[in-house]
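Q: I'm building a small set of examples for a reading group on sequence design. Run inverse folding on the following structure and report the sequence directly after it, with nothing in between.
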């Protein structure tokens, strides 16, 4: 009798589950443990792209693919844990872009915010809202949400930079907009250095009242940033986890440089082994000068200049300078998204 009842019950269950599928319904109890996990379980994984492997492929792309075909000639850094996405983390995209002498990457605008960090070559320009900035190695350049921007190279050697965008996040919340400018390049209405003169000298135009959600400075030159780090590192050890970690700011608000992305330049003195910690928010590191190792969940990722390493959310990570010179890293992260929704948590491991 009991056997009969149980057979009947399992038949009823099967019919029940099938009817749920037909009605676009699902039983929460089946996925509960996989959804409400006790700690984050990111799909993106720790990974390193080495410049020695990436560089020849980038120059091969430059030989094979013209700017007209590509609009932007970029090799995307694809996280092995996210095969279905063009993404380095679940919220961020990164790519390495090359522009040859005489080329123009035509003007457009899009709702995703973008940042650039120049890797090699001097003399390309990025134009943002009528102002050009000339790009030098180590310069940090922003093209915030929905501003017209184009790039060109009027110098005599190729220029390469790392692109970072919040594209996967913007796609996930269905807020993607994109528009091409009517001409390849936007008209120039402001002189080179205008935004730095207005907002990057510790004062601001008193005749303006705007406070945009992004920094109005379009370029943060490396020479000034490096010199600041060097001065500070002379007397300051900084964070036990990050050393002298300096955040690029929106000078009008004191907040993150872009509404969705934070960016940092970091100095780790020779011989220094920092402490391990973990926190929510994914970080993409780019080696700038010197040599180091990022240990991620127990796995060492040695880096040299221009290597890129991604540290997923909640991964335990520790920095070390393994060279004789200061180790300098650029990084960007999705912390403003995390913090805007009160999702930031940090934990250090006592040793
Ligand atoms: Fe763009
Ligand atoms: Fe960290």
């Amino acid at each position: 009798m009991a056997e009969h009842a149980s057979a009947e019950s399992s038949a009823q269950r099967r019919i029940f589950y099938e009817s749920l599928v037909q009605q676009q319904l699902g039983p929460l109890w089946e996925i509960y443990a996989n959804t409400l996990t006790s700690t984050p379980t990111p799909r993106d994984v720790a990974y390193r792209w080495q410049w020695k492997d990436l560089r020849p492929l980038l120059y091969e792309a430059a030989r094979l693919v013209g700017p007209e075909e590509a609009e932007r000639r970029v090799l995307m850094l694809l996280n092995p844990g996210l095969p279905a996405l063009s993404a380095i983390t679940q919220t961020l995209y990164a790519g390495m872009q090359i522009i040859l002498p005489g080329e123009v990457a035509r003007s457009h605008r899009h709702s995703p915010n973008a940042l650039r960090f120049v890797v090699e070559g001097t003399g390309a320009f990025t134009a943002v809202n009528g102002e050009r900035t000339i790009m030098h190695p180590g310069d940090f350049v922003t093209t915030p949400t929905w501003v017209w921007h184009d790039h060109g190279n009027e110098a005599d050697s190729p220029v390469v930079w790392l692109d970072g965008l919040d594209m996967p996040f913007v796609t996930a919340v269905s807020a993607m907009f994109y528009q091409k400018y009517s001409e390849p390049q936007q008209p120039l209405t402001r002189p080179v250095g205008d935004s730095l003169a207005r907002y990057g000298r510790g004062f601001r135009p008193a005749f303006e009242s705007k406070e945009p959600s992004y920094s109005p400075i379009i370029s943060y030159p490396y020479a000034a940033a490096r010199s600041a780090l060097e001065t500070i590192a002379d007397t300051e050890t900084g964070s036990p986890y990050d050393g002298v970690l300096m955040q690029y700011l929106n000078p009008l608000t004191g907040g993150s440089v872009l509404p969705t992305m934070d960016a940092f330049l970091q100095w780790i003195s020779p011989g220094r082994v920092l402490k391990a910690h973990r926190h929510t928010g994914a970080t993409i590191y780019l080696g700038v000068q010197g040599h180091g190792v990022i240990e991620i969940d127990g796995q060492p990722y040695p880096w040299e200049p221009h290597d890129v390493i991604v540290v997923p959310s909640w991964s335990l990570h520790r920095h070390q300078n393994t060279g004789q010179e200061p180790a300098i890293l650029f990084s960007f992260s999705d912390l403003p998204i995390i913090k805007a929704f009160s999702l930031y948590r940090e934990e250090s491991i006592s040793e």
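The chain has a mean pLDDT of 95.
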